[in-house]
Amino acid sequence: MASFRVLSIERIEQLELLQLIEQSPDGYAFLSDPVHVNTTVKLVVPPHKVAEFAELNERFSLKAEVAFENLQTVIDRQLKGRREVFGWTAYHTLEDIYGWLDTLIEQYPNVVSPIVVGQTYEGRQIRGVKVSYKAGNPAVFTEGTIHAREWISAATVTFVLNELLTSVDPAVRNIAENYDWYVVPVANPDGYVYTHTTTRLWRKTRSQQNVLCFGADPNRNWDYKFNQGGTSTIPCSDTFSGPYPFSEIETRTLSEYISTIPNLSTYLDFHSSGQLLMVPYGHTREPLDNYNELMEIGRKAIAKLQERHGSVYQVGNIAEIIYVASGSSLDWVKGTLKTPLTFAYELRDRGEYGFLLPPDQIIATAEETLDSIIVILEEGKAMGYH
Q1: Of 346, 352, 367, 379, which one is the catalytic site residue?
Q2: Whole-model pTM?
Q3: Where are the domains of the chain?
Q4: Is-contact 190 249, C-beta < 8 A?
Q5: Could you count the other beta carbons within 10 Å of the beta carbon of residue 87?
Q6: Beta-bridge mates of residue 182
Q7: Which cofactors go with this protein (predicted)?
Q8: 169 torsion bin: left (phi>0), alpha (psi -120 to 50), beta (else)
Q9: Distance (Å, rounded) from C-alpha 167 to C-alpha 198?
């Protein structure tokens, strides 16, 4: 059987070409988003596209080299290590994650309560937990895996949740006990399940758009500056914004829930990959009202993040450091709810594995991320934001 090859394209000069491929993939896929000139991109070439890509490679001097001979072997490596016990040496299914949330609710009945923050097209619940040690705390909302294929996101969010309950580190205890945490590991359950059962690199929801095309990009579907750049109106595209704002039940119900959270001071959204810490907005490079303060907090956060394992991150507004992208949850929370501290992470790595980050990097990724979250909250408090 012909395999799906993964080609590495160094120092992209033909960014426009790759972005056109992404808009009309017809079987092509990327292991990380093609967004920057002078970065490496891994492109999945399906068997029926080998001849076509060879021609493109020659015509545009892409200098593509084979990174992985067979995509499936990289995926299999990512699926290794599934244990009976929930932990962070492996990636877990939605069922496992929800089962683990249930055990936390049983183990910590005075602190952890179940929350249902939304519904999905296929009838699942978007579940999470609230962690509250005392009344009257400012609230932090953390959201993972709105893009289905970004598994490291759910793994990081569950790791942080576990630390909030079990860590004896004084800095972790401080943020655990002095904030109310609303933790949603998987904001796109249908898509996440689909990445485990059918198509590993699926990104969107699973709503039927037409006979051939499924899903909208749930991070382009929010009702704030909808379709003002960085989106597609082509239903089969990975960045299809949906036919109208909040067309997806996932984004609509999630937004309704977030609107009800009292004292919401902080919103943290987790993606992969690229090692970026981003502030709103995605539709414009114009700085938002508290841009300078968020950038100052962000710079301190990424400096702290680098200390533990040496991971280098960049900080900036979405449109500046990654690409123009309108209709994101981050922009909606900032633009509509006026939540002061809003950050989106693009977690590891910087292009080697992209969405297929090996499980042996989960714990290090999550540890360094938690270090930086502590800084975000402490610095935000020092600025009077909570």
Answers
A1: 346
A2: 0.95
A3: 3-69, 84-199+223-383
A4: no
A5: 16
A6: 130, 141
A7: Zn(2+)
A8: beta
A9: 36
Q: Is the dihedral of CA 219, 123, 356, 369 positive or negative?
A: positive
In this prediction, residue 293 carries a pLDDT of 97
Beta-bridge partner residues of 143 = 184, 269
Q: Which of 166, 216, 165 is nearest to 190 (CA)?
A: 216
Residue with tokens 């609107």: 259
* Range with the largest mean pLDDT of 216-225, 227-236, 316-325: 216-225
pLDDT tier at 36, thresholds 50, 70, 90? low
Domain 3-69 of CATH type 3.30.70.340: yes
User: If you average pLDDT over residues 8-19, what whole number do you get?
Assistant: 76
* Contact call for residues 357 and 152 (beta carbons, < 8 A): yes
Nearest to 352 by CA among 22, 25, 32, 21: 32
The DSSP call for residue 354 is G
Neighbour-count burial of 77, counting CB atoms closer than 10 A to its CB (0-12 exposed, 13-18 middle, 19+ buried): middle
- pLDDT higher than 70, residue 175: yes
The DSSP letter of residue 205 is -
Could you give the CA distance from residue 214 to residue 210 in angstroms, rounded to a whole number? 7
What topology is assigned to 84-199+223-383 in CATH? Aminopeptidase (3.40.630)
Question: How buried is residue 25: exposed, middle or buried, by Cβ count under 10 Å (0-12/13-18/19+)?
Answer: middle
**Quick check: is 346 catalytic?**
yes
The rounded distance, in Å, linking the Cα atoms of 302 and 346 is 12
Let me know how long the chain is.
Answer: 386
| E strand or H helix at 335 | helix 329-335
Is the pLDDT reported for residue 344 higher than 70? yes
Question: Which pLDDT band, with edges at 50, 70 and 90, does 14 fall under?
Answer: confident
Could you tell me the pLDDT band of residue 11, with boundaries at 50, 70 and 90?
low
Q: Is the dihedral of CA 62, 13, 218, 24 positive or negative?
A: negative
Written as six digits, the tokens of 121 are 């097209």
SS3 169: coil
* 101 Cβ neighbours under 8 A, 6+ residues apart: 114, 127, 128, 129, 185
Phi-psi region of 132 (alpha: psi -120 to 50; beta: other; left: phi over 0): beta
Number of CB atoms found within 10 A of residue 235's CB: 19
Q: Which amino acid is at 85?
A: V
